[in-house]
Design brief:
homodimer; about 140 residues; mainly alpha; two-stranded antiparallel sheet; 2 strands; about 65% helix; elongated; DNA-binding
Chain lengths: ~140, ~140
DNA sequence: CAAATCTCAGCGGCACTGAAATTT
DNA sequence: CAAATTTCAGTGACGCTGAGATTT
């Protein structure tokens, strides 16, 4: 649907506008990641591991915005691709310790490049200053 | 998840930020509409009918951002509640002509009040000027 | 025993596709 | 006959819940 054809009641509703862009955003970013045979959730997982270091799956899900039960499958796949390593925590054998591998770090860099291009396509109508403003406002609205 | 705990790679990604707020937004607005036993999609349908007048279901879905096949069920419910009327178009008997009823207009006014309150809760961290800026940037990004 | 962790099976809301039936 | 419209059945991605198994 095109925004300009929508009813004014919707077009001035922040919650509605916020619902429109993510649909495109997910597609753009999803397509960029699909070229690497990865998923948006897996990018979040790799980014968390890179920034915060090895972690249990629970903590990992928490910081990546994923449900504990969905982390399992994505981690399975990342391990099969040797982008992460998963092993039992010897200190607490209930936990898995998940860590990014060197290959995972390399992949992350490539992903980042493609994802940035996707952002450009997504926000192509906004200049650099407007993009910064948008990011700032979204972060503030979210409480960051 | 809290934004401040997320990896920086995600926190500076517009597409990711855009994905976080709608989750809250849908819940807020959905709860407001649920008090009237209605759904977000149905608000969009009523708003379209009010602003653009009677329409076929296809055109209605187009302007409301809904799939043709999902329109059916929501319209069924709205008709049962007598907020809209649906009848065969005598000019083209393939089509249904859907129109909002006086009761539908009254309901729409009440819905709007509750939805505005939900927006306030959603964007409570932003002042009036920032809200206007956010709306403007989102609309521009969407091509409006 | 209670609590934490990982894992799996399944559910519900959602957007969509495909096809049948009717009409133009 | 081809195209448009409504309707229905079904699919798939997604986020989540609940329960079992293991460990602390």
């Amino acid at each position: 649907m095109d925004v300009e054809n929508a009813p004014e009641r919707l077009r001035r509703l922040p919650s509605w506008l916020l619902g429109q862009l993510p649909a495109e955003a997910r597609q753009e970013v999803g397509a960029a990641l699909a070229r690497h045979e990865l998923h948006r959730s897996q990018y979040a997982l790799l980014a968390s591991l890179e920034e915060f270091g090895p972690s249990s799956q629970a903590g990992l899900g928490e910081r990546s915005g994923l449900d504990r039960s969905d982390v399992v499958g994505w981690i399975d796949d990342l391990a099969a691709k040797e982008l992460i390593e998963r092993e039992r925590d010897p200190q607490d054998r209930r936990r898995n310790v998940v860590a990014i591998t060197p290959g995972g770090r390399m992949t992350l860099v490539q992903l980042e490049r493609d994802i940035d291009k996707a952002q450009d396509r997504l926000l192509g109508r906004l200049g650099p200053a407007d993009r910064k403003t948008l990011i700032r406002l979204l972060r503030r609205a979210l409480g960051a």
